[in-house]
Fold this sequence. Notes:
44% helix; alpha+beta; 104 residues; two-stranded antiparallel sheet; 4 helices; Arc Repressor Mutant, subunit A
Amino acid sequence: xxxxxxxxxxxxxxxxxxxxxxxxxxxxxxxxxxxxxxxxxxxxxxxxxxxxxxxxxxxxxxxxxxxxxxxxxxxxxxxxxxxxxxxxxxxxxxxxxxxxxxxx
Length: 104
């Protein structure tokens, strides 16, 4: 179920949230499946407080969800935004955001 902030802003609100490079990078990592906050942080190399801020914005928007996993926190895309083919796209309802592999 989408949060109040996503229903009020609709697709434009979600796109605005994802316009931030760090938040988009976090979402891109979660497209492959759930990750612990430590895994996300190791990959992005951010200060913990900055990563926490971006994760909170994504949670408040309803794009990601979190759950305790022992002493760690496990983050995943909210089910309504998952693509039928994990790792390929995020489904915002109004559009799909996909990423080309630009590495080669």
